[in-house]
Structures are given as C-alpha cells and as structure tokens.
Amino acid sequence: MAAENGPDAVSIGEVARLAGVHESSIYRRCGTQEHVILDALLSFSSQHLPIPDSGSVRKDLIEFARSIATYQAGPQGIALARAMAVADDDSVLASSRIEFWQSRFELARVMIDRAVARGEVPETVDAAMALEALIAPAHFRALLTHQPIDEPFLERVVDQLLQGIGRYEPRSRA
Amino acid sequence: MAAENGPDAVSIGEVARLAGVHESSIYRRCGTQEHVILDALLSFSSQHLPIPDSGSVRKDLIEFARSIATYQAGPQGIALARAMAVADDDSVLASSRIEFWQSRFELARVMIDRAVARGEVPETVDAAMALEALIAPAHFRALLTHQPIDEPFLERVVDQLLQGIGRYEPRSRA
Fold first, then answer.
1. Tens digit of each residue's pLDDT (9 = 90 or more) over B76-122
2. Comparing C-alpha atoms, which of B98, B100, B99, B130 is closest to residue B114?
C-alpha cells in the first residue's frame, strides 16, 4: 500500500494502480494522502474520457455517457467518486472538486457547441446544465441505486434529455 | 455515540439524532451498525418527503426537487447518501439500496401519473427515468461538485427535463 513507504516514495501511476486493486480502502485514506490519490485518479480520468465527434449530437452524447459510465464503474472511478462523496468540505479533495468538474465540463461542452452549430440544439442551450443532466443519472445509479448502467439506459437518458418529457411545442415557439 | 452502549441500548430516533450531529462518522460505522443507522435514516427520510399535488407538473416537480434537495443538504441526507455511496456490495446497506430507491420512486411517480391524466405529459413517459433525471442532478451537486442547489438550478433542471434541449418536434409526431 502507498502508506507503507510514505508519499514521497509513491509515484502517481503506482497509486492509480493500487487504487484499482484496493479500491475499498481509498476513501479511508483521504485524510492523510488525499492529494496524492486525487492526482492519480484525476490523471487517469482525463486520459480516459475522449470527446466524441460523430456528427450527431445523439450519438456523441450516448458515446460520451458510455465512456463515463465505463470509467466510473471501474475501480478507479468508484474510488474517485467515493473519495469525493465523503471528503470533508475543508479537505484538499473538496477544494479540487469544483475545479475538476468544471474542467471536465469545459472539455465536454464542445459536443454541445458542435450540436448548436449543426442546428440540432438551439443556441440558448445551457451546456453545463445539459452535461450535468447527461452524466448525473449514471452517477446516481453507480453511487446510490446500483441499478444497471447499460446501453438501453444510456440511450433513454440521452433521448429524454434531447426530447424532454413534456407535451411542449418546439423550443423555437416556446 | 451509539457505539458506546451497543446496538440494543440505542433507539432509532436517537441514532437519527446522533447522525445529524456526528454526520462525518456515520459512514465509518457502516460495518458494525449499518442496519440500525439505515433504519433511522430511512425512517426520517420517508417522513420528510411529501408528494406535492399543485395541479401543475412543473410546480410539482420543482417543489419535490426542492424538498429532496433540502433534505439531502441536511446532516441526515448527507449521512445517508455517504453511507449508501461507500457501502460494500455485500453489506446490509447495499441490499437495502435498490429497495429504498424503488419505494421512493413508487411514491413519487403519482406526480407523473397525474401529469399524464392532465395531458401535460404523454402516457408513453417512463416515470422512473423522469424521476431519476429530476433528482440525480441535485444528488450529483450535493455529493460530487458541491455547486449550489438553489431555486434557479431546480427550475432549470425541471424545465430542461420537461422541454428537452433538442430541436425536436412535439413527441406526438416523433
């Protein structure tokens, strides 16, 4: 374990690897080595979240949701989500949280921007809100209900996000 | 603390009260007393989640999301969410998770059923998916990003859920 040799002796990659093997102990270590663990997990996270560009907003959003779901269902994703969920508000982890998500959303919003440019989504869209609505349900299932995060679920999340559930006229007339 | 006297000496109400005061220690105790803590938190939760019936699906969903957000931002809500997030899959807490959320959704879906009866939402709606999309973003903020869960946010979640972000024709022609 990382704690055996002290923070200075541990490479970030090694912690990330250890995080996968010993996921259940990660969140218990937040108090002492959270910055090392956070760096490792964030580094892994940014490498594994490519932004799709298929030409279709529906396809892009489904593929992005799928890659997030695959990542977060893995040991690193679970460890990161748990560490973030239980971190105290005055911890290093907590202070990195908002920055982490904002940078994630900044990277991902190009999917929405391209959809606006193609005319699939009106330019009045709130891209950050749309991305939250895209990935929050899968996090909700992964962290709380543990219901399956499968392809039909991801497609329904995206279709519901695009179409809405209400009997509304098209947005141009709203 | 509950652990000082053993599980038998602790009333559920007392644990719930203690959960509020000592929220940060709740999830660390899941291994030994999780069933007592879970019962206390679920009991509190069911009492504090009334289902609104205003005659407007938009108003109902905003009010419901607000009451969930208020609850989950409090010490019991945070303790429950954290305990659920970090519970091992073979724990008592984990086995209660799906049942808990299913019963919550069963209670809440009457809002959607009433909206269908009023013609505000088509009867093809997936009520469980709609409710997940309603409450997942607030959980996401409460647990992960810690961004504000205020009235404008709740209204945008509901409007986005009802209207969708895409330039779609009304669902009847989809």
1. 777 777 776 666 666 666 666 667 777 788 889 999 999 999 999 99
2. B130
Interface confidence: ipTM more than 0.85: no
Yes or no, beta carbons of A164 and B162 under 8 Å apart: yes
Structure confidence at residue B46 (pLDDT):
62
Using the Cβ of A99 and the Cβ atoms of chain B, whether some distance falls under 8 Å is answered with no
H or E segment to which residue A19 belongs:
helix A12-21
Residue A68 confidence (pLDDT)? 85
In order, the DSSP letters of B68-88 are HHHHHHSHHHHHHHHHHHH--
Residue A38 has pLDDT above 50, yes or no: yes
What does pTM read for this prediction?
0.73
Cβ of residue B98 closer than 8 Å to a chain A Cβ: yes
User: Is A154 an interface residue toward B (CB < 8 Å)?
Assistant: no
Interchain contact, B121 vs A165, CB within 8 Å: yes
Cα distance between residue A65 and residue A51, in whole Å: 10
* A75: pLDDT strictly greater than 80: no
Q: Residue B140: phi, psi to the nearest 5?
A: -60, -45
CB B108 within 8 A of CB A157: no
Domains with residue ranges and CATH for chain B: 51-167 (1.10.357.10)
Residues 76-95 of A with CB under 8 A from B: 81-82, 84-86, 88-89, 94
Give the 3-state secondary structure of residue B174. Answer: coil
The DSSP output letter for A1 is -
Cβ-Cβ pairs closer than 8 A, A with B, add up to 165
* Subunit contact A143:B147, Cβ cutoff 8 A: no
